[in-house]
Design goal:
The complex is a heterodimer of chains A (about 400) and B (about 230). Chain A is an alpha+beta fold and about 400 residues long. Chain A folds into two domains: about 180 residues, no CATH class; about 190 residues, no CATH class. Chain A contains 13 helices and eleven strands. The longest helix of chain A is centred in the last third of the chain and has 44 residues. The chains are: A alpha+beta (about 400), B alpha/beta (about 230).
Chain lengths: ~400, ~230
């Protein structure tokens, strides 16, 4: 067998010549691969950013938070938990922290100029100072209902409530109207993510709730932190401990589950988009094969000249194969850049962590090159089989 | 003018049949010898088998029957790869339509003549420059084919054929696409090359051109009609 004399570097330039000589066509040919790779990189990038963000959120919130509340009544009425429930829960071994809140049916308004019928869907939660620690929340401004503030008509706003009430900062003293009592705003919470109900609430202390609205301390929701190693066990015994007679009337949930479920739903969507991206890649590959076959037919002269200058079949084959790989590689690179840009844009816009694993980028380029190689096989063989005498025919 | 006893190209009883239907016998028992330093023209009507003969001698096509020997080697024993390398190293081709690569400059086009020889690019370009100067185009190195006249393009093609320093040059109607003056110019370049010792075999339609050759082979219906003058 004769050894290849075409130097590897020259082979690359010969293949590149084929691409460069038809720039417009090359661009259009690689679009398919570009779109496919961009779609796949963006979709996996967005989903991995989402996952990274979820992990960061879960990390900060902890997955050992458990929420228990009475099962909603048959007609949607809010049931109460049995008396002394906190004590019962505290006696469960792995439980580390417990706090409770009481849902109050009060109308929240910005001022008394707003009609009583336009409450804005903000609920009032009566709470003690521990709540913030247990649920892992933090404040954008001000402070929470500390023990000293419990008896005073002051309130802390959840993030959504703050927005709806038009109080986004505390640079000026602000008041809101709860039922017919004025409450000074002392703090605004950050978005809680896994407690959308609390985001839409305003918080007041038990002391002031009792004196102004005659609300007793019977909790409607329990929040607790348990030893992460026994979390399932705690979930299992919580309802029977809280209401031994009717354990099915207690609804126990882990807020982190909801996030994970949401993520799982997004995964299904991600897979769909990945499927679409793969179809684009397939179509892109076929497009490259098509254009390359056409190119081979058009370039019989070039093939004939190269054969007459000493190119072997193999060298012609490599040339067209590499040309196809280059075409597809260009598409792949552009696709990766586009995909990363889309992911960056998305993560910036939604304010989540940006994360694309490096292997994913390399993988995408590799897939593009592979598609180019596969698409190039048939045209390359076709090119190498052209008889030199045929190719140089006048 | 025969300067050595062993022919550069020796063609013995070759036939070429293009499979039908109907089968066409393009060459019929053709024999001829080309010696080093020969200046040969092949003449004949269209379809007489001139190009087929030239392609056989250039190893671009295979014979149906008979043997071709180049520099003493029987080429029927060579593999396709070896034939390719043989073409690259021993034979310089000049085509009627120049066949330059449109995206490359004159110098790069000529350098392509050494691409399959495993020579580094800068050396290829250096040799290409020398070859272009030999055909009087030293001032056109960076021009693209479309920026050159037909005659100039054919001179680039000649330089490409010569850059590898082949044993012989095969030219298939190199003046066919050129005006009278350019054609004559090309012929003079080939004649000059021959006077420096290069073996040249050229197909021509032009009777005036044929007269300039020391040896004319006339083909009629795939058969050799006349040999040396």
């Amino acid at each position: 067998m004769v050894k290849n004399k075409l130097r590897l570097k020259d082979l690359f330039f010969v293949a590149l010549y084929g691409v460069k000589a038809r720039k417009g066509r090359a661009a259009m040919t690689s679009i398919g691969i570009g779109i496919g790779i961009a779609a796949i990189v963006a979709v996996t990038g967005i989903s991995s950013s989402g996952r990274a963000d979820l992990l960061a959120t879960l990390e900060s919130l902890g997955t050992n938070l458990i929420k228990a509340s009475p099962q909603a009544g048959f007609f949607g009425s809010q049931e109460e938990l049995p008396e002394g429930v906190i004590g019962m829960v505290e006696r469960i071994g792995p439980v580390e922290e417990v706090t409770s809140t009481t849902q109050a049916d009060l109308l929240v308004r910005r001022t008394d100029f707003i009609s009583e019928f336009e409450g804005g869907g903000i609920s009032t939660v009566v709470t003690s100072s521990e709540l913030l620690d247990v649920i892992g929340g933090n404040l954008t401004e001000g402070r929470f209902i500390t023990d000293g503030l419990s008896d005073i008509p002051v309130t802390v706003l959840g993030s959504v409530s703050a927005e709806r009430l038009g109080i986004t900062n505390l640079s000026q003293p602000s008041k809101i109207l709860i039922d017919d009592e004025w409450f000074g705003v002392v703090g605004i919470l950050n978005e809680l993510k896994i407690h959308p109900d609390l985001d839409r609430s305003v918080f007041i202390g038990y002391g002031v709730a009792a004196t102004l609205f005659d609300i007793d301390e019977e909790p409607t929701t329990i929040y607790l932190r348990a030893n992460p190693n026994f979390i399932e066990d705690v979930v299992d015994v919580l309802a029977p401990s809280m209401n031994p007679e009717n354990p099915d009337q207690v609804e126990v949930s882990r807020p982190s589950d909801a996030l994970e479920a949401q993520q799982a739903a997004e995964t299904a969507f991600t897979n769909l988009l990945l499927g679409l991206g793969s179809v684009a890649l397939l179509v892109g590959g076929v497009a490259i094969a098509n254009v390359m076959v056409m190119s081979v037919l058009e370039r019989r002269m070039e093939i004939g000249v190269r054969r007459s200058l000493g190119a072997t079949r193999r060298e012609i084959r490599y040339q067209f194969l590499l040309e196809s790989v280059i075409l597809s590689g260009i598409g792949g690179l552009v696709g990766v850049l586009l995909g990363v840009a889309i992911t960056l844009g998305y993560t910036n816009y939604t304010n989540i962590v940006f994360s694309i694993p490096v292997w994913q980028i390399f993988g995408a380029v590799l897939v593009a090159l592979l598609i180019g190689a596969i698409s190039g096989v048939y045209p390359a063989i076709k090119a190498s089989k052209i008889q030199p005498a045929e190719a140089v025919r006048k | 003018m025969s300067t050595s006893t062993q022919p550069v190209i020796s063609v013995k009883n070759i036939s070429k049949v293009y499979e039908g239907p109907p089968p066409v016998k393009a060459l019929d028992e053709v024999s001829l010898d080309i010696y080093e330093g020969d200046f040969v023209s092949i003449v004949g009507q269209s379809g007489s088998g001139k190009s087929t003969l030239l392609n056989m001698m250039g190893l671009l096509d295979s014979v149906t029957d008979g043997t071709i020997t180049i520099d003493g080697d029987d080429i029927s024993e060579l593999t396709d790869d070896e034939l390719s390398k043989f073409r690259g190293e021993k034979i310089g081709f000049i085509f009627q339509s120049f066949f330059l690569l449109p995206g490359l400059t004159a110098q790069e086009n000529v350098a392509e003549g050494l691409l399959y020889h495993g020579i580094k690019r800068d050396i290829r370009l250096e040799k290409a420059k020398d070859a272009l100067e030999l055909v009087g185009l030293g001032h056109r190195l960076t021009h693209l084919p479309k920026e050159l006249s037909g005659g100039e393009q054919q001179r680039v093609a000649i330089a490409r054929a010569l850059v590898e320093d082949p044993s012989f040059v095969l030219a298939d109607e190199p003046t066919g696409n050129l005006d009278k003056e350019s054609g004559l110019n090309i012929l003079n370049i080939l004649k000059e090359l021959n006077s420096k010792g290069k073996t040249v075999v050229m197909i021509t339609h032009n009777q005036d051109h044929a007269k300039m050759f020391e040896k004319v082979i006339e083909l009629i219906d795939g058969k050799v009609m006349s040999g040396e003058k």
